[in-house]
Amino acid sequence: MNIHVPSTYEIYRGWQSVQGTGLEIGTTLLVGAVLVLACSMVLFLLPTFIACRRKVHHAAVVAVVNCTLGMTGIGWVIALLMACLLETDTRRHARLRRSEPATFLSVP
């Protein structure tokens, strides 16, 4: 009866073929973590991006509310509502030319 006992090197090579190299696994995890972080940051700053895109008059206020209170969830919703409902620069300039009173929630 001939019994083969594998050496440490044979066990290591067999495990490496099943597992893959550490560099491939580490790189995949790193790229995945960076992508998740980037997507979550874009989603977190979405109210600020919307306020800048709409040219909201108080976009800096939206950004401050988003960055300071956005982590609570309620603050993020408030910042999103502010970004969508606050007066834009073009509407503000048109209102000032007509001398109309300001309303907080002027519909765009």
TrEMBL record:
Keywords: Membrane, Transmembrane, Transmembrane helix. InterPro entries: Phage_imm. It holds the Pfam family Imm_superinfect. It comes from the Bacteria. The chain crosses the membrane at residues 25-46, 58-83. This is Superinfection immunity protein. It comes from Komagataeibacter sucrofermentans.
